[in-house]
Amino acid sequence: MHICRGLDLTIEDREFFVLLGPNGAGKTTVLSVIAGLTAYQGSVFFNGSCMDTVPAEKRRVSYLPQNLVLFPHMTVVQNISYGLKARKWEPDRVDERVRELLGLMHLEQLGDRYPRQLSGGEKQRTALARALAPSPEILLLDEPLASVDLQTAKRIRGLIREVHNATGITTVYVTHNLEEAQELGDRVAFLHKGSVQQVGSPSAVYFFPENENVAEFIGTPNILECCECRPVGHGVAEVSCAGLTVLVPHEGNSIRRIAFLPGDVYLSTSKPPGPEFNRFVGEVVSITPSRSTVHVGVAAGDTVIIAEISPSLHTELGLAVGDQVHVILKLRRVRTYEE
Amino acid sequence: MRSLPVRCLRPGWGVVPIILLLALWEVVPRVSDGSGGGLLPPFSEVMVEGWRLLGSGVLADNFLSSLVRVLAGFVAGAITGVGLGVIMGWRENVRKTLRPLISLFYPIPAVGWIPLLMLWIGINDLLPIVIIYICSFFPVLYTTISGVRSVDRDFIRVARSLGASERHVLLTVVIPLALPYIFTGLRLEAGMAWRVLAAAEMIAVPTGLGALMMRAQSLIRIDIIIVCLIVLSVMCLLFEKLFAVLESRLTRDWC
């Protein structure tokens, strides 16, 4: 059975490359192919050298699977040094490298503990240290933050990025989390049912989805072309997009597009209190109920904004096509694509 | 629902039924003296006979013969069972090739081999050793195969990607992680070896606890038979306990 077909990816040296996609897209399989841990038809090249006949242990690739699989019968130090001993490093060098990694991952006090005695974050850091220990040329991370809480995930994301910046190791990171992809990736490849749908910078994938699969995965955002951008200070700019004037976060460059998710659009039948910016009056042009939400299309300016509301709110507002509604956008929920 | 008080579950309480049984054993034969035809001597008389057998060296000689046979048969069965089990668990082609053959032999009870082995190797010390070997080999083989196969493939994938050769992965990851399974097989079979030993010695050889029991039976010495049964029971328990302790020592930090 083929899980991936017709796959053609080029990952640059020292790049942080993210494989993004829903479950079953074939992301883990791509990692296994790169690592030489699964049979495949086709070719894998590292720096122009064909790796197809090179066994996994000789590819200089470290693979960190989703469930971390720290060796339960080994302490933190033994886990980290495993790859070094397997590659027959001198004991002095092993000790030195392990000490270095214990420091880098803030694990100095935990060297003698077994994995079952570690917290989720400590396990993550140990697994990362183990993967980094033999100084691999490529680091493959398979949804490493899938099983930790949000706070820990945030810390470890920072750590992973820090490690990448410090070592420059080519990293391939698998996730189904768009936010992770945007925060970490230099480039993102979106996979769907075993084929690559789009490759580009995280912003490009978000603001210029090349097909419906990509758009649907990122939440089918409202994307508006912008023609004017006037900074108003405090990291905010006023932009004209599709006949609407919108205040958006601004980092200094000209804003070409803005995007916001349907779930981040608020609707009201009466004029809401508060400041006047990012509020528009529009006319309901479509109402599409689905299983757990209702999509309401509102014509405002020269565009139709899609809002996603709950069925109960829809009933409460009593909306019908042709009604006038107030559309509210939260400033921080609007993403910008700057040139 | 309220849970039972913890003190009800303390292991010390297990001694109570044993003490009660021994007390009954001591009292009932004396109360019904003569009416039972001496078929069950009191506990104290059995102990005295045990002491006498120990003093005369009869029990020690026979016990040592049995111990050597158990150790020889069990150690050989365990080593080949674990060895072949690791290979069969690790190599799918070996497993698929040998499995039909092993499935054919495994259901035959170890003592069922006795008539055939009497003809093949004769009535000598080797016979009970081979019976114990057969008794130990198959279950240890099966638990080892299960243990090796139960190791999550991700451990192997990670170890390989960290640069470990297949042999290194086997020795440092797969076998240690299969230890709980392997020890379950060893523990059960260490006790089973003593049970099978008695049967083999009764039929086939002139020395050992089984043979001593058969001689005692022909002389209607129930006290000696009971002494031998007690020794067998204690050895079964000791061997099982030994492997339980070993397993705990080797895996307590991480299991």
Structure description:
The complex is a heterodimer of chains A (339) and B (255). Chain A is an alpha+beta fold and 339 residues long. Chain A folds into two domains: 16-217, 3-Layer(aba) Sandwich (Rossmann fold); 222-338, OB fold (Dihydrolipoamide Acetyltransferase, E2P) (Beta Barrel). Chain A is built from nine helices and 18 strands. Chain A has helices at residues 27-35, 76-86, 91-104, 120-132, 150-167, 178-184, 202-207, 212-217, 311-317; strands at 16-20, 45-46, 49-50, 61-64, 138-142, 170-175, 187-192, 195-200, 222-233, 236-241, 244-249, 255-260, 265-268, 279-289, 294-300, 303-309, 324-329, 335-338. Chain A has a six-stranded mixed sheet, with helices on both faces. In chain A, helix 2 packs parallel to helix 4 (120-132) and helix 4 packs parallel to helix 5 (150-167). The mean pLDDT of chain A is 91. Chain B has a domain at 64-95 and 115-250: Orthogonal Bundle (MetI-like fold). Chain B has ten helices and no strands. Chain B has helices spanning 15-31, 43-56, 58-90, 92-105, 114-121, 126-150, 153-161, 166-204, 209-218, 222-251. Chain B is globular. The two termini of chain B are 30 Å apart. The mean pLDDT of chain B is 89. Chain A binds chain B through residues 32, 35-37, 55-59, 61-65, 67, 69, 71-74, 82-83, 86-87, 114-116, 130-131, 133-134, 140, and chain B through 152, 154-155, 157-165, 168, 172-173, 176-177, 251, 253-255.
